Amino acid sequence: MKKLVLTGAAGRLGSYLREPLTKMCDELVSTDRVDDIGTLYPGESYVQADLSSLDAMLEVIKGADMVVHFGAIGDEAPWDDILQSNIIGAYNVWEAAYRCGVKRVVYASSVHAVGMHLKTDTIGLDAPHRPDTYYGLAKCFCEDLASLYWDKRGVESVCMRIFSCAQATNARSIGTWLSYDDLIHLVERSIDSPVVGFTVVYGISNNDRAVVDNSKAGHLGYRPKDNAEVFAKAVFADTPPLDNKDLANLCIGGPFATVELGNSGVAALGVVDDRKET
Length: 278
Description:
InterPro entries: Epimerase_deHydtase (IPR001509), NAD(P)-bd_dom_sf (IPR036291). This protein has about 280 residues and is of the alpha/beta class. Helices cover about 30% and strands about 15% of the residues. It has helices at about 10-20, 55-60, 80-100, 135-155, 175, 180-190, 230-235, 245-250; strands spanning about 5, 25-30, 45-50, 65-70, 105-110, 155-160, 200-205. It is globular, with a radius of gyration of 18 Å.
């Protein structure tokens, strides 16, 4: 491909995608709201832009083959913040992609679009939306937006329902972990698969205790290699007995299932900010 666009390039997950994406195209345009994202990789440029501006997205996306959309707030937040960044921002990305003739949007959706389902149900990709927060509700909107733009305007999308893409430091993550290497593999397959139409896939590693079924996304060729079971003994040894009536332990959304709307869910997860520095 000639040009890829990566939104959310300054974020933790975006930091791991920048270098591998430069190897899939002649030009990678990374974008975010910050002033600077550090040293650029060969073939990469940086454009400061706000997702809430359609004009800005049109300018950034012009001439792109595909957009990898990781921008927006990555946690539960007050409604007005979610509305501007995660909902209006997503509309601007898909609308700009349509107007600019982009083939496909690869989107960082989230488990929180279905976060109120129980772990023990081992849901598949046909499970109905069941968001656990405003953040999860925005992911539902974006998945439906992606479906609409495929059905009515021919813009392909892969919506990756990302689970625990961080260090496996708590009991929940033993079933929900997504390693950075598997994240990169999933994004690569979402880009290089010849035809995807509208596809939803769970972003989860090859965990023995996985809480969802990804079999209906086999056409992407996503074959995760890593398994959180290697961390299980140490993590469980440091974990007190869990309350089996607490929705934070029962639901696949974890603590997002119990936080008050508008309040952070990430704060309860102990996520380590180990973003890749350049």
